[in-house]
Amino acid sequence: MSEYIKGATIYDSSCSEAARTLFVSGTERTFLKISTRGTLEREYQMTQFLHTHNVAPKAVVYESDLDHDYLLTEAVSGEDGTALLHIENPGKLASVFGVYLKMLHYFLPEGCPYPNRSNELLKAKDAKGIDLSIANEYSYSPIDNVIIHGDYCLPNIIMDNFSFKSFIDLGDGGLGDRHNDIYLGLWTLNYNLKTDTYRDLFLDAYGRSDVDVYGLNYFTKLMKLTS
């Protein structure tokens, strides 16, 4: 790892307590994420996989020591979905946010390194002692048939004046149920825009025909169990 950051100027750009993120400005512009050992392998694998589809940054190197994981990825030009330029035009933001999610869900699943995302999610919640029977009132069974981001929030998409550049922070991704991402997309629009006004624009842009009301209700309930 040292050869990639030697002589570079490093800035702390962390925005999460779960991991430390450093912007490395050297011969190449990269981001170095540092977290607890074993926690970044999934992000590395999913970033590599989606980079082959040209929708994620290049994963330069992934290493571990006794205590930590280190993931170095290329820095993609542009700004995330919470940048003022994007937030100031909320209608357009909601629409392109839906379009780019649909684009992700259209990719063929062959080669995805994590093929059972919904089952993993349910097991994780069950391990925390959460009563999952509450979500069963919607009589819906998750269908793992699309590539999901897993944390589809405005800070995790990079755009250049609304033009798509990259998905980032893919550590919760895999082959999963589309309504997982749809719920998260609606949640982040409401959270970051401070209103639910743009819900319909997002769903229309994604495509109503691919949204199952029971599926969306199921994941809304499921995700709120731990919120």
Describe this entry's structure for a reader.
This protein is an alpha+beta fold. It has 2 domains: 2-74, Phosphorylase Kinase, domain 1 (2-Layer Sandwich), CATH 3.30.200.20; 79-224, Aminoglycoside phosphotransferase (APH), C-terminal lobe (Aminoglycoside 3'-phosphotransferase, Chain: A, domain 2, Alpha-Beta Complex), CATH 3.90.1200.10. The protein has 8 helices and 10 strands. The chain has helices at 2-5, 41-51, 84-87, 90-105, 117-127, 178-193, 199-206, 213-224; strands at 9-12, 20-25, 29-36, 59-64, 68-74, 79-80, 146-148, 157-160, 163-167, 174-176. The strands form 3 sheets. Strands 1-2-3-5-4 form a 5-stranded antiparallel beta sheet, with helices on one face. Helix 4 packs parallel to helix 7 (199-206).
Concise synopsis of the structure shown:
This protein is an alpha+beta fold and 227 residues long.
List the helices and strands and how they pair.
Blueprint: H1 2-5, E1 9-12, E2 20-25, E3 29-36, H2 41-51, E4 59-64, E5 68-74, E6 79-80, H3 84-87, H4 90-105, H5 117-127, E7 146-148, E8 157-160, E9 163-167, E10 174-176, H6 178-193, H7 199-206, H8 213-224
Antiparallel strand pairs: 1-2, 2-3, 3-5, 4-5, 6-8, 7-10, 8-9
Helix pairs in contact: 4-6, 4-7, 6-8
